[in-house]
Amino acid sequence: MSRDPLPKPQRRTRADMAEETRAKLVATARRAFAEQGYAQTSMDDFTSEAGLTRGALYHHFGSKQGLLVAVIEQIEAEVGLRLDAVSAAAPNLWEGFRSRCRTYLELALEPEIRRVILQDARAVFGDVPQAAQSVGISALQAALQRMVDEQTIRPLHAGAMARMLYGVVTEASFWIAEPDGDQPERLAQALAGLDRLLSGLLA
């Protein structure tokens, strides 16, 4: 009785290997940036930990700054999913919007977000990268427009208000995360101020 031949293992393509290399570099750099900080992290240390070379880093990201952008984008994407889940779990649009904004501020106390997004990103780039800003503003704008349409909040230009609110919560997050401040106390103050600000939108 003949046996069916075993299937041959699929060969990894060059694209697969490139993606694996990128993922290794991002994961290793993310851990190093969160634990040591961007400025204190040696490229030789984390490329060695990933089992790769400086050449691989430059090939895929162009520079250490390019790798930081990739780490920021990955963290921001995860933050976006968390905020979406918070909004979806709320009993109505208004509570979802309010909870989303409050959670954004609360994330400033998480060590990885505080170090990489709110301290290192600002020190290196002066702000959160534009792509991440656009995603955050779009989410706020969509929620505001739905609440205007349902007459939950007063009539307003959703795009303008989304940009103003994004600026408010982002700047407050930077302030909360400053290493020389009382971060829990600053969070409490920011949350109280946010609630007063948002209450003015209600119809």
> pLDDT average, as an integer?
91
Write the CATH architecture name of the largest domain: Orthogonal Bundle
Q: Which parts are unreliable, with pLDDT below 50 for 5 consecutive residues or more?
A: none
Which term fits the overall shape?
globular
CATH class of the largest domain: Mainly Alpha
Briefly note the CATH topology name of the largest domain: Tetracycline Repressor, domain 2
Distance between the termini: 79 Å
Helix and strand content put the structural class at: mainly alpha
Radius of gyration: 21 Å
The main sheet comes to: none
Estimated share of beta-strand residues = under 5%
Describe this structure in words.
The protein has 203 residues and is mainly α. The chain folds into two domains: 13-62, Homeodomain-like (Arc Repressor Mutant, subunit A), CATH 1.10.10.60; 68-199, Tetracycline Repressor, domain 2, CATH 1.10.357. It is built from nine helices and no strands. The chain has helices at 14-36, 43-49, 54-61, 64-89, 93-106, 111-125, 130-149, 158-177, 183-199. Helix 1 crosses helix 6 and helix 5 runs antiparallel to helix 9 (183-199). The model has no long low-confidence stretch (mean pLDDT 91).
Short description:
This protein has 203 residues and is an all-alpha fold. It has nine helices and no strands.
What is the topology?
Layout: H1 14-36, H2 43-49, H3 54-61, H4 64-89, H5 93-106, H6 111-125, H7 130-149, H8 158-177, H9 183-199
